[in-house]
Each structure stands twice: as structure tokens, then as C-alpha cells.
Automatic annotation (TrEMBL):
Residue spans of biased composition, Low complexity class: 404-431
Domain Cell envelope-related transcriptional attenuator positions: 142-300
Source superkingdom: Bacteria
Protein name: LytR family transcriptional attenuator
Start and end residues of each stretch annotated as Disordered: 390-452
Length: 452
């Protein structure tokens, strides 16, 4: 049959919509009033289009609906929720199969919090490579942003580890798009950001999995439009600039002070490296972590992950620009991720940089600092709380703080002033100090990006 739905059966006020086999790995239960069913006049895609009209009528005639009684209100509200779910589901792209230890992707049951520790890899890519940086011109889409979100088994702490694109590491053999194992042969030392172009998202995940020893069951890839849509959906992200930023490559120009960035401005900020810190990729990572920490604070303050309206707006703004692993490519899975992380305190969310050192044969590249990395990865795997002692990174700073001292935890300011580094949180018993070469910050720490 035509349209997005193959089977629609009405039982008075309940309509059950079953997705066409293979398009989505789940079914949607859509509840609507009997009158709205009669008005649709057909099944399949038409019913979905009617859902859009029904939502509008419900709001315009809100007083009439209230007068009709509690039952009608509940039924109409369910129609709106179902329509929103359908819209987000219809935006999901074809998924990518990951290679896991047992060869089977994780199974998400229901929409509650996931069980145990979870690890989600996120790659940021520009399908229009070369738009901002001349050195990328002529290449394919590359994973220039590489982050691993690790949530502890008790769901009380989360760590986002960023890996520099110029990190020189082996690329393992990777499967083809249809899952054929070892389709792409392994390569000796290569920059991390070639993995995506070489073997797709699954290959980028395998590369990080081999490097860290952390099994990654979930993954996503987001392009520039997704970043723009996400920042627009949350109404902008406040950032602190401690020194003017002028990047001729991205066109970013920011004066010293506080700025609220969204859309293309936010994208340019996240892409900039020539205008910040020492101009290197580690500077860009520290600047991105300052931005993401602010984004987390904004989402927490607005209860984005517990507010259905805000969560829908955020999901709708990003799903069209997201490619997800099969394990994550469903509404239940996405809701489960939100339920898993929604109660983590901002001071228990850490953004860290995978520790590196200058490459021995190429000063323009970096190599893993394995001893420091071992301490970081061990803490992540065990869920042990840690202190970042190496500072925030080459492009960010807390005004007045000693860059060699333990990174302080500060509360966000409400008046736009630069945070006071003296407002620190005492060390928590049972935490460990990471090596000095591990840099980063907690999400509740307000840091400022420095130009150059």
C-alpha cells in the first residue's frame, strides 16, 4: 500500500500503525479521537498528514476542547505526541551496523533508562569538505570531530573523550557497508580522520575501539546542518571569550566578552582553530569542550531532556542530519539515551582530551601518550570519579586560574561576568587525580576561549 504505514486498524478511538517492514525497527501506537479518524478519510500517509492538521486545530480551538471534557483532552494530546513521534521517526536515515564483541548489536527494550554502562561514539563531519579549510579541499568526508560518550554503570557519571583528528594510529580491518567482515584491509599508522572516508562510520568506531579497548555499542555521525539545527533548537549557547577571536578561514569574529551563539555562528565557533589558542587541533578541542559544557548547562536549566516539547524540537532539528548505528536508530533507543543521562549532575559530566604527544617523525601530527591514556581509560571503564589536573587546554582558561593547578569547579554566572576561580568544590573522597597530560573540564565549569 502507498504511504508510510502499511496497516492501519481503527478500534473506535485507537488507531494502531505498523511500520512497513524494514523501514523502522519498531512499531508506533497512535491514539486519536474517533472524529479525527473519520475526518482523515483514508489510511497510510494521509493519516499522518491529518495528524499535522489535527494538532493545529487542537491549539486554535483549545477552549472548545477543554469544554468537551477530560477524555477528549487526553485523546487529542496523545494525537499530538504520536504525530511528533512519527515526524521524528520519518526523519531517521538508514542505519549502520557496528562490529561488537559478540557480533550482535545491543538490544533496547522499551523507552526507559538503559541497563549498565553505555558507550556512544559521535563523529562530526562536513560532507562539503573544504568549505572552511583549504587544506581539506579535494578530500572525502572526514571525521574531524571524534567523541566518545561513556556513561558509568550506575548512570551517575559521564565522560566525553575527544580524540584529535591528527592522531596517528593504526586503522583496523573494517567491514563493508553490507556487513561483509574484513572488507577493507587494515592500515598502518594513519591520521584518525581518514577512518570515516576509508570504511565508513563502522570503521571509525572500530578504530577508537581498538585504541581504547572500550567496546562501543552505539554510534552516530552528524553533519554541519545538524549542528546548526541543534543550536537553533535550544535558542543559542552562551560562550565566554577572553581575547578577541578573528579566524580568516571560517570568518568567525568575536570580541572579548560573553556571546550567545547559534546557527552558522555556532558552527564557525566549533570549526575554528586558526583564530584560537595556538592554532592547533588541541586548541579547537578545548574550545569545543567549553561550548559543549555550556550547552549541557543550558539543556539542564531548561529541562530539555524531560520536557517533551523541547525534546521533540531538539530531536527534529538533528535527526535529518544524523546517521545512526542500527542499535540507536529508533525512537525507543533515542528516548532510552535521554532517560539514561537526564539525571546526571552537571558536575559529574566531564569533557576530556585523549592524551597525546608530538609525533616523533611528523611535528604536524600527534601520537598517543599511552601511559596517561591508560589511567584515563581505566577510570572510565571502572566508573571511578576523577579530577582533571592538567588544566582545560591550550585555547580555554578560567580567568586568574593557574594553568598547572587542578581544574576548579565553578558555578555558572547569571550576569555574564567572568567566573571566579576561587569558587571551587572540595575534592570528593574516592576520586583519583589523572595525569597532567590529560586536559579537560567538567560541564559545570565556565571557561573562556582565547583568541590568538
Amino acid at each position: 500500500m502507498g504511504g508510510a504505514a502499511e496497516n492501519v486498524r481503527a478500534r473506535h478511538s485507537v488507531t494502531i500503525v505498523t511500520e512497513r517492514a524494514g523501514k523502522y525497527p519498531f512499531s508506533l501506537v497512535v491514539v486519536m479521537s474517533a472524529s479525527s479518524k473519520r475526518a482523515s478519510g483514508s489510511t497510510g500517509g494521509t493519516a499522518v498528514r491529518h495528524g499535522r492538521q489535527k494538532r493545529s486545530v487542537w491549539w486554535v480551538n483549545g477552549l472548545k476542547v477543554l469544554a468537551a471534557g477530560v477524555t477528549v483532552v487526553a485523546v487529542s494530546g496523545a494525537s499530538v505526541v504520536s504525530y511528533a513521534t512519527w515526524v521524528v521517526a520519518d526523519s531517521l536515515k538508514p542505519s549502520v551496523n557496528l562490529v561488537t564483541g559478540d557480533g550482535k548489536p545491543p538490544v533496547v527494550n522499551g523507552v526507559g533508562a538503559m541497563k549498565g554502562a553505555i558507550n556512544i561514539f559521535l563523529a562530526g563531519t562536513d560532507g562539503r569538505t573544504g568549505e572552511f579549510e583549504a587544506e581539506n579541499a579535494g578530500g572525502g568526508a572526514r571525521n574531524d570531530v571524534n567523541m566518545l560518550l561513556s556513561v558509568s554503570a550506575d548512570h551517575k557519571t559521564a565522560t566525553v573523550t575527544s580524540f584529535p583528528r591528527d592522531l596517528m594510529i593504526p586503522i583496523p580491518s573494517c567491514p563493508s557497508e553490507d556487513g561483509t567482515p574484513n572488507y577493507y584491509p587494515e592500515m598502518n599508522e594513519q591520521p584518525l580522520n581518514v577512518a570515516l572516508d576509508y570504511g565508513g562510520l563502522a570503521c571509525a568506531v572500530l578504530t577508537i575501539q581498538e585504541l581504547t579497548g572500550i567496546e562501543i555499542g552505539y554510534a552516530g555521525m552528524i553533519d554541519f546542518q545538524g549542528v546548526i539545527g541543534m543550536t537553533n533548537a535550544v535558542g543559542g549557547v552562551p560562550v565566554c571569550v577572553s581575547q578577541d577571536i578573528n579566524d580568516p578561514y571560517t570568518g568567525l569574529s568575536l570580541t572579548k566578552g560573553m556571546h550567545t551563539l547559534q546557527g552558522m555562528d555556532a558552527l564557525m565557533f566549533l570549526r575554528s582553530r586558526h583564530g584560537i589558542g595556538d592554532g592547533g587541533d588541541m586548541s579547537r578541542i578545548s574550545s569545543q569542550q567549553a561550548f559543549l559544557s555550556s550547552l549541557v548547562r543550558e539543556m539542564k536549566a531548561a529541562d530539555t531532556l524531560t520536557n517533551p516539547t523541547r525534546l521533540f524540537a531538539l530531536a527534529k532539528s538533528t535527526t535529518e542530519s544524523l546517521t545512526l548505528s542500527t542499535s540507536l536508530n529508533s525512537i525507543p533507543a533515542l528516548l532510552s539515551v535521554a532517560a539514561t543521562v537526564k539525571d546526571i549532575d552537571v558536575n559529574k559530566i566531564n569533557f576530556v582530551q585523549y592524551p597525546v604527544k608530538t609525533h616523533p617523525y611528523n611535528p604536524n601530527k600527534v601520537a598517543p601518550d599511552y601511559p596517561a591514556a591508560e589511567s584515563l581509560i581505566a577510570a572510565i571503564k571502572s566508573g571511578t570519579a576523577f579530577n582533571v589536573t592538567g588544566g582545560t587546554g591550550p585555547a580555554t582558561e578560567v580567568e586568574g586560574a593557574d594553568s598547572t593547578a587542578t581544574t576548579p569547579t565553578t558555578a555558572p554566572t547569571t550576569d555574564g561576568a567572568v567566573p571566579d576561580p576561587a569558587a571551587t568544590t572540595p575534592a570528593v573522597p574516592g576520586t583519583i587525580d589523572l595525569p597532567q597530560n590529560v586536559k579537560g573540564q567538567s560541564a559545570d565549569e565556565v571557561t573562556c576561549t582565547a583568541g590568538r
